[in-house]
Amino acid sequence: MSERGAYKLYSYVLAHDSGFVPNSFGSYYTLACCKPKIRKNTKIGDWIVGTGSKRNVGNVRLIYVIGVTKKITFEQYANDGRFTSKIPSQGVIEEGGDNVYYRNANGMWIQRVSYHAKEHVAHDLSESIETILPF
Q1: What is the per-residue pLDDT across 108-121, written as a single tens digit (0 to 9) for each?
Q2: Are 47 and 65 in contact (CB under 8 A)?
Q3: What is d(CA 39, CA 30) in angstroms, rounded to the nearest whole number?
Q4: Collapsing DSSP states into helix, strand and coil, what is residue 61?
């Protein structure tokens, strides 16, 4: 138990398991896209359990269990050297990076070319524009 009480457990049902969300590439598991409510509401010490969907990935099997160890802003994520390998680039694995959002010189959010198309921007940046979860 923490000072704030019991830790919480969040469930994430994976419709697809490309490694993009949560992002398992590199030295950190990260959750920078999709699931804005999970990103907003989790606290350090909480857990996220990923299961396969009934019709798709894993057929209701446990895929991962990860603990939240830190939360940082999108801007910190975009500018922190530890996460440059998460910036999408050419290559099968590299394209899967979830470090896709940053602010330009005018303060506008920019989406890098990635697995996520432009129609995902509003959802990804809703609820929790300023938070991200490195595991």
Answers
A1: 888 887 766 777 77
A2: yes
A3: 10
A4: coil
